[in-house]
Each structure stands twice: as C-alpha cells, then as structure tokens.
Amino acid sequence: MSHFQFKILQAGPQQARIGKLFTPHGVVDTPAFIFCATRAAMKSLTIEQMRAANTQIILSNTYHLMLQPGADDMQRHGGLQKFTGWHGPMLTDSGGFQIFSLGQGTVADEIKGRRSLKQAKTLLKINENGALFKSYVDGREYLLTPEESIKVQRKLGADLIVVLDECTPFHVDKSYTESSMLRSHRWAKRSMDEFMSHDDGKQKLYGIVQGGIYDDLRQQSADFVNQHDFFGNAVGGSLGANKQQMYDVVAYTMNILDRTRPTHLLGIGGIEDILHGVLQGIDTFDCVHPTRIARHGGALVKPWHRDQDREHLNLRNHKYKLDQDPIEPDCPCAACNNYSRGYIHYLLKTETSLAFTLIAQHNAFFMNDFMQKIRVAISENRYMQFFAEWSTANVVDKISDQVI
Amino acid sequence: MSHFQFKILQAGPQQARIGKLFTPHGVVDTPAFIFCATRAAMKSLTIEQMRAANTQIILSNTYHLMLQPGADDMQRHGGLQKFTGWHGPMLTDSGGFQIFSLGQGTVADEIKGRRSLKQAKTLLKINENGALFKSYVDGREYLLTPEESIKVQRKLGADLIVVLDECTPFHVDKSYTESSMLRSHRWAKRSMDEFMSHDDGKQKLYGIVQGGIYDDLRQQSADFVNQHDFFGNAVGGSLGANKQQMYDVVAYTMNILDRTRPTHLLGIGGIEDILHGVLQGIDTFDCVHPTRIARHGGALVKPWHRDQDREHLNLRNHKYKLDQDPIEPDCPCAACNNYSRGYIHYLLKTETSLAFTLIAQHNAFFMNDFMQKIRVAISENRYMQFFAEWSTANVVDKISDQVI
To answer: φ, ψ for residue B16 (rounded to 5)?
Structure first.
C-alpha cells in the first residue's frame, strides 16, 4: 500500500480548499508553503530551527545537487533526508529551471515578466533529447534528459518529484511557447515512463502545466496533464508580465485542471500571491523569497505592521537603530522572543551572520503561521474576510483602524 | 548586599580547585570557559544555541562596542544582556588589548611569542593619560583613558569588568616591560578610583598581573594586585615564546597571587593549555579559538578521536566526503545528534554558513563539557588521571589502546 494520499477536507470560497497530503515522511496540511533548501541546506538555519518554526515540508534543487555532491554520493549518504537531517516530507524539482534560468541568464525574471542583465551562459545545447550544460562547479559537461532527471531525483530520494520541462521564457512568441510546451509534454511522458519503470512506492511524480499566457495552450496542456496519471500537478511556464496577469493565468489554469490532485504553484510565494493562489485552488507554494530577503535584512510582517509599500520591514534602515521592539510585538517566534529590531539592525551593520539566522527564523515562522491562519480561516468559513484583512489593498484602512 | 561572591568548594592537586562565582545574572561553576561574543554576538550561534550547549558565561569586547553601536546607544538598549538576549553572567575587557593589538598590528601574536605581518595601524599615540586611536568604523579619533574604559564598561553593563592595561608586546626588553608594567599599575589604580566613585554593586572589577616573562616583575605586579581590593585577578601581559614558557610564567604568577579571588587567564583556551592552567589554579579562561576554528572547518574532538597532531578535525579534508559519522560519535550535542561529517564537509565545500553554525554548536558544547569533566574529575579526586588521559602527550597511546 502506498503511503501517499491527498485528501481534500473542506472547500472554501471559489476554488479554495484545505487538505492533507500524506507522504512516507509525514503529513502536510494544505495550503502549505514549501521552503527552498536550495543546496540541501537552509543556509543560515538548522533543521531544529526549521522544526521550531513549524515547517512542514522543504525542497531541494536537483540541478545543484547533481553537480555537488552528485546523485551517487547523495545516494551513498542515504538520500536527502538522511543527509540533511530533515526527516519530514521533501520535494525536488527536475533540474530544468536552473539549467534554463542560469543557462540563458534571464528565465527566472522572464517567467515573472521582467528582463534583466545576462549572466554567464552554461546552457550549451537544447534539443529533443534533453539539455547539455556545463557544471559551474568543475566545468564538466552534463546531459540532462527527462530520464536522467528522474534517475537523479530517485537517488536524491525526496518524496515528491517533478517531470523535466523546458522553462519557456516570457518574451518568446506564441509559436515558440506552443512548440516548447509540446516538447515539455513529450519530456513529461518520458519522465513518467522512467518513473514507472522503477516505481517502488517511495516517491510520487508531479506533472507540469505549460502554455504561457495563452488560454488555448493552457487548455491543451491541462488536458495533457489530466490525461496522464500524475500524483500531483504543478502550474509552470510563464505566468505573465505582471501580478494581475499571473492571477488570471493561474485562475484560468486551475479551472480546467483535475481538482482531485494536489496542485503546486512553482516559485511563487509572496503574501498577496498566496492569498490569490489559495482562492484559485493552489495547495502548495514554494519560493526563495522568505529566506532570500532575510539575507538582505528583510523581515516579513503582517500588513498592519508594514511601514511602506512592501510585505517586509528593511531592518537595515537607520530608524531601527534604537528600536527595542521585536520584529513583530505579537509574534511568538524564537527571534521575536529574544531579540530587538535594534539588535538585528546592529548585527546587519556589523555584517554578523547571526542577523540572517534571526530574520530567517522569523520569516520561516511567519510563513508557516500565515499558511496555518489561511487553513483556519477556510475551516471557519471566513477566508474572504481573512483575504480582505491581509490583502495589500487594505493596508491603509487597517492602520487607520488601529489608530482609532 | 552584593550579589557577587566567589566560593572555593574543593581543592585539587597542586593549585587546582573547583568553585562557584556568583553574579547578579547567575552562578558560574569554575573552572569555566568564557566564550567570546566579540561584537555582542557569537557570529553564527543564537543565544538559545549557546544555552543548549550549556554555556555559563560570555564576554564582549569594549573596544568594538565603544565604536559600534557605542556605549551610550548600548545603555539606551538597556546594556549588553538586554541587547544580546543573553541574560546570564558576562564579562567585558578594558578595550586595551584590541587598541594595542590592532593598533600595533602584532601584539596578539607577540604576546604568544609569534611575529607576524603588520596590519594597518590605528593607534595614534600612547602616553601617561591613555591611548589615542582612530575608529575603524568611521575614522573618528577616540581617547581611551583608564577612567573612560571604566565609564564605557559601566554603560555596557557586564557583571565583571577589567582595568585598562597596556598589552606589553613580547619582543620588547625588560626595561620597557617594567616601565609598561608600572604605567599599567597607575592605570589600574585610576581604573579602580573611577570604578569606586560610582560603585552601585552591579559590577565587579578585576585587576591584571603584568611583568612579562620576568619573575621579579611578576612578583612586583602580583604584590600590587594583591594589595588592591580587586574582586578578581587576571593574568595578563606577555606569557612567553612557547607553551612551556607560558606554563612556567602562569605557574610562577599563580604561586604568588592572592588565592581567595577568582583568577582569569586572559586569551588562552587550548585544551592542553586549560589542562595546565587548571593545575596552576586558574578559574576562568577565554579564547576565540573554539568559534574561530569553526569558521575554518575545525571541530574540537577528544584526544582519542584526533587524527593528527591537532586538537581538532579539519572537516574540509576530502576524506570526510562520504563520512556518515557525526563529528564525535559519543557526543550528545545538537550538531552530532543530527548531522554527519560528510554533510558538514559538503556545507563547507559549498560555502554554506550553516557549516559554521553546526561546528560552532559542537565546539561550544565541547568546551563546556570539557570544563564540566574537569570539575567532576577534581571533585572525585582524580584530576591527575584526567590530565594524563587528555594531555596531548598521551594521544598516541590512547589510539593504540583503541586498536587493541
């Protein structure tokens, strides 16, 4: 019997729902946030600190791990969970995102509709077979095919794994988006064939919906994914040029996807984005945001604690120098229990890595707490009210309320 | 009534002893190791992690704190303990060591008998009044006098504070060592006068024995310190060109010092050094060593776990790549409970700061555990046996024993 199961417990407004995702390493209450332990580590947090922050599930990136320490060494270490000391549920991606994004230099931004400076290209060739790229660790050439991605993910040993797809950039035209989508479908089928050939019940495979911003392509891709026996679905590909377009693309896609499967939104994790994603029926989110901003002094706060048009406070700001309050006075996390904004500001000024640990502790707790609040709001039939309280549009009202 | 007291509980061999050092922030069981939170932080460890490692007492450096955040801002934050979240016993040094060592570029090494490359000089002038130096933070000039050092330490608010002295380098001749010592005595008296003028019972002052490697000067300096009403004594100044000379200087000094006071050995914290220091009657030690080597991949291990002529393993070494054992298989610390040498090796290779956290967690636990083992050995009248088991001279025998 499989240890995997996805149970929908209760429906909320629109497509929102709460559920339970069972894996051999534990249960994930959904909607859930998946933290990015990119290189098999949360950089400045220990696994105990992640647990203390009520973390349910983390992911690691196949691309980095296949280069270092390498899939075979990871297998010798007993797989990701044993290696990292995180014995809870895990997900790995296919490796494709980093190959295309680091290789072409701009995909990460382009998927979100931004253009930016080019980075060094490591992607050497992409064809029907797969992607040839050069290791940033030692310059060796690697060929990542759909089969190889699954083999590597099998050795890494996460519970949830993902088919290889091409991360289609935003700036390409519809015809490229379509042919890229069709190739991703062929890769998805090859990924599944490889997966089935060695399926021992310890992992489950997610398919990915492509199609960019085009409704007819999204429909075609959703049909493909629905027709194949993936355990879960992921919404991938270009999500548009701005937030509203992303919400529209996700809403359209979610309306035509098989709703019995757990559904993941790839690489999205802002507060506002999650509020919308949940409403559109997304069950899990992942993003480097909470830990990445921590390394720049950014501490996530509730809308009514914000001091500008951002979802976080910038603790590098001089005004926090003598601030003796914790990041959030009503937050019970380890960082807010023991340290002031002024102390963290000082640590940032003196470039002390403890600053990143403390902010990341808070941000991890914040995200898990936020997702729990979402689940509770759905279960108590008041998600729309919760949405209104947390949505950025209401920040000003909220502050006024507090003053009164 | 003062919250301060030093009780000697039991005498061991030679001058060794176990005691209890009472402070307003808690009791320190001695012999004890004092950890260096140089800039009011343990760099890669949280206060909770320090507590979990059974830490009793930490110190911070007046020199760095008077420049950033500054004594007045620290006072506004409620003092070091409130600022750092460490509510246990604390010590601050006088600021002198860094001024002379960073200023002249070499004192830290020279006190231990080594010459090294010059650094940028920030010490502008030293005369009877004090030391004029330039801030490395903003280039401002500061005058550190004995009175100023005490005033700053009062604002920082540690339990135990220290008189300002000149850190006499090793390479100077006896006549310079003597005149420097005499000036340090005058500075010590001025430090004490300033201390007494505002003594509110919340802090206690340590005197420092100078005199370099010269027995007659050490005698003269010990007489000075004994004759003044310091709460505690510290052994300072140049301790010689090598370990044997250091052990001789410390042994000689400890024989002539007032033995009713808690006595601190400044800046020394190697395993072998502590074994000797305890025998010579030292009650507290401090050193950046356990946390500094952590940032270079060095994990402290018991003599019979060592693999070369060092007190630590270098986890950067390629041979740990596939090692699935923890740093020490018999260690119950948080790092050894959850992570393998191979994982930490990988984190070091990928320059992930979690590596430093994990090794520092182990090293902090290791030092506290080592000091506790010392106290237990003394209390059970078997310190000489413990000394023999832990002293480097016995490493080879120990390994042979294990093979048999």
So the answer is: -60, 150
Cα four-point dihedral sign B92, B96, B99, B100: negative
ipTM: 0.93
DSSP run (H or E) holding A389: helix A383-390
Q: Which domains does chain A have, with CATH numbers?
A: 5-287 (3.20.20.105), 298-390 (no CATH)
Q: Which residues pair with B35 in a beta bridge?
A: B58, B287
B93 is catalytic: yes
The two tokens of residue A274 are 């999650």
Question: Which one of A35, A36, A38, A46 would you mutate to disrupt binding with B, by most B Cβ within 10 Å of its Cβ?
Answer: A46
Q: CA dist B88 to B22, B54, B163, Å?
A: 11, 11, 22
Q: How far is CA B148 from CA B181, B212, B347, in A?
A: 20, 25, 44
Task: Using alpha carbons only, give the angle B50, B51, B57 rounded to the nearest 5 degrees.
Answer: 80
pTM value is 0.94
Contact B77/A at CB under 8 A: yes
Q: CB distance B44–A342 less than 8 Å?
A: no
Rounded (to 5) percent helix, strand, coil in chain B: 45, 15, 40
The residues with which A55 forms a beta bridge, in sequence order, are: none
In chain A, residues with a C-beta closer than 8 Å to the C-beta of B65 are: none
C-alpha B330/C-alpha B334 separation (Å) is 12
B286 is catalytic: yes
B130 token code pair: 């004090």
The number of beta carbons lying within 10 Å of the beta carbon of residue B394 is 15
Q: Of B93, B159, B165, B273, which one is the catalytic site residue?
A: B93
- pLDDT tens, position by position, A378-400: 999 999 999 999 998 644 444 33
